[in-house]
Every structure is written in structure tokens, then in C-alpha cells.
Amino acid sequence: MGKLRASVCIDAVLGDLDDRQAIAAVREAGIGAFEFWKWWDRDLSSLAQHRGELDVAACCTHFISLTNPHLRQQYIEGVRQSIEAAKAIGCKTLISQVGDALPDRTRESQHLSLVDGLRAVAPMLEASGVTLVIEPLNLLVNHPGYYLVESSEAFEIIDAVDSENVKVVFDIYHQQVSEGNVINNLVNHIEKIGHFHAAGNPGRNELTRGELNYQRIFEAIRSTEYDGFVGLEYWPVDEPLAGLREVASWFTS
Question: Which CATH class is domain 3-252?
Fold first, then answer.
């Protein structure tokens, strides 16, 4: 049996608070980890000081396209900087979006560009002990034009890169919108998943809203060897702390 731990995306769930207030709210909710998006917009020394016993589950790399090989060196340098930032705050996971599809290039060439770019940063990641996770997103609601949509293609890319430090962030909300069948898709490829995100669908609100049975989904993840975090990345409709406390109880019972 694996171990699944909750993390709060403070930019989404607690976006009205500053970092110090948001970290205090995560602690008050009884959740042991938080994550955020842009490390370069933050005072990392202050964040490290105030996180206390909480884990920093994840943050993002610079948003530089992997689909465009002409931006390869910029992407590599962005990952290098992101690794240093992650190490400074004790973060072990970097989330990388891959960029929009390029209309003047074939999907095959863009797929290969992703593989080549990730192979280029894999040695840095392996040396640092940091894992980079690429993120499929949905086109129908939130990210029109984005390249990587299907989890199956993301898993193919991970196989081709062949590094224990390059995996997928499986966003359950996005994959429900894009393809459904989330339990089978995640359980059958669990060794390629380094992080999860979760939100209710439709609406991208609390996990208790919508069509997804998150308690059942989390049970399925726990039945595997996965040992990591699920980031609560949603926009709350109700009072944020109450929703976080309810979900926290799913991880302590």
C-alpha cells in the first residue's frame, strides 16, 4: 500500500492571502504540505522561514515552451534556475507545462522536441534529487491551444526519456475533462506519475462538488505503491478553510 498525502495549492485555494497567511491557514486546516506556481514572484527566504514543519510539495518551472526546439537552451536554463530555487526551500518536485502546439510543425516533431528537451535536463535533475513532472491539460475548458492533452502521450514521453526523475503530474480534473477513465489510467501507469492535482468537475471547485468520487479515487491511488502528494488545486466556492478541513479528514481517518 502506498502513502498519499495532501498538499494545498495556495495560489488557487488561498489566493486572497499573502504567503504567510496562506501557510498559517494550511497548518490550521491540518494539512502538512503546500505548493504554489511561480517561485520567481516570491520571497523564497521568507517562505522558507515561515513554512516551519510543512513540506513544500511542488512549484513550477519557468513557462518556456518545450514544443519549440529553438527555445531549448532557454528551457534548460529555466530548469537549472528552478532546481536551485527548489533546493533553497526543500522542494522535491518541479511542475513543467510544455507549451502550446505549434501550427507550423507536425505533432510528431513536437513530441520529439519534448523528449529531447526532457532528456537534456534529466542529468541535472538526477544529480539534484529533484523530480520534474510534465503536465497534460484540457483543451475544452481551460487551455485551448495547449500541446499535451492525453495522459497516454505523456506516459509515452516518460518512457522515451527513461529517467526516474522525469514523470507526469496527473491532474485528475484535467484528465476527467479530456478523457475520463481516470482510475484505470492512473493505476495502470502509477510508476510514471510523480504528483497529482485534484479539483471538482465541472467547475474546478471543491473536491466534494461535481461528478468525481474523490474518496474512491484516493483509495485507488493508495492501493498502489505511490508515495507522494495530491495537490488540492481548485477555486473554492465556500469558505476555504472549511473545505480544506473536510478533505484533510480523508487523509487522517
Answer: alpha beta
Residue 10 in grid coordinates: 495556495
* Rounded Cα–Cα distance for residues 95 and 89 (Å): 15
Q: Which of 184, 182, 196, 200 is nearest to 226 (CA)?
A: 196
Alpha-carbon distances of 185 from 139, 147, 193, 195, rounded to whole Å: 19, 19, 11, 14
CA atoms within 13 A on the CB side of 17: 16
pLDDT digits (tens, 9 = 90+) for 164-191: 999 999 999 999 999 999 999 999 999 9
C-alpha cell, 161: 526519456
Catalytic residues: 135, 233
Torsion of CA 55, 62, 140, 105, to 10 degrees: -140
Q: What is the rounded CA–CA span in Å between residue 214 and residue 208?
A: 8
Name the residue ranges covered by the structural domains of the chain. Answer: 3-252
Contact 187, 220 (CB under 8 A): yes
**What is the pTM assigned to this prediction?**
0.97
Q: Looking at the predicted structure, is the pLDDT value of residue 1 above 80? A: no
CA distance 99 to 148: 8
Q: Which residue has the cell 492535482?
A: 197
Cα(248)–Cα(253) distance, integer angstroms:
9
pLDDT tens sequence across 6-49: 999 999 999 999 999 999 999 999 999 999 999 999 999 999 99
Q: How many CA within 13 A on the CB side of residue 224?
A: 20
